[in-house]
Known about the structure:
Layout: H1 5-27, E1 34-38, E2 42-47, E3 50-56, E4 61-63, E5 77-78, E6 89-90, E7 93-94
Antiparallel strand pairs: 1-2, 2-3, 3-4, 4-5, 6-7
Amino acid sequence: MTTNFDDAFKSFFAGCEKINNDNCDRQGFSRDGFRFETGTRYVKVIRDTSVHCFVDTKNGDVLKAASWKAPAKHARGNIFDSKNGLGSMGEYGPAYLR
């Protein structure tokens, strides 16, 4: 586990991309393009033309997207936890709350 945001985010981003690529390969789909945009408070992870998730730069919380511009309330994980925030990530983004 790392305490540096950039290192933890880089690992989280690579993990999200791997989860998605594995699913695309399994389903026989072409792989989606992943990228991210850094804002003042959140890093927006974008898969193809939709928001995959948001990551809070203040505390590392992983948030589901409520819209293109805003995250939903309630964290789905944290990039500083033992699973690097990937514990609740699926191929289409963070899991819904139960």
